[in-house]
Amino acid sequence: MTDQSTKKYSQRYRSSWESDQRFKGWLQPVQGDGTKARCKICGNSFQAHMKSLIGHSLCKKHVDNTKSSTSKSQGSIINALRPIE
Ligand SMILES: [Zn+2]
Questions:
Q1: Residue 61 near residue 68 (C-beta atoms within 8 A)
Q2: pLDDT for 34-82, tens place per residue?
Q3: Where is this region: Disordered (predicted)?
Q4: From the CA of 18, how far away is ligand 1's center (Å)?
């Protein structure tokens, strides 16, 4: 009999996540707690699970925050088309 419920995954923060395109620029470890991760843009901390990280990366608040923090001019193409008569 295999009882998998007794087998517990020790989910810990991985610094390799920081180089993931989805988490780059905002993910950081929580000092003193290796089981947690933190978003430095939103200031939220959450479980250091891939699921939680992805969940946060898709959260509307986070998306808005990252948009406003990366205030790079995206070269908006505003062509003022003036009809010449
Ligand atoms: Zn965030």
A1: no
A2: 999 999 999 999 999 999 999 999 999 999 998 887 655 444 444 455 6
A3: 64-85
A4: 13
Over residues 19-29, the pLDDT tens digits come to 999 999 999 99
Report the separation in Å between the CA atom of 9 and the middle of ligand 1, taken as the mean of its atom positions.
25
The token pair that represents 4 in the structure block: 């998998």
Sheet holding 33-39, edge to edge: 27-30, 33-39, 45-47
- If you measure from the C-alpha of residue 37 to the centroid of ligand 1, how many angstroms do you get, rounded to a whole number? 11
Give Cα separations from 84 to 48, 68, 80, 81 (angstroms).
Answer: 59, 37, 12, 9
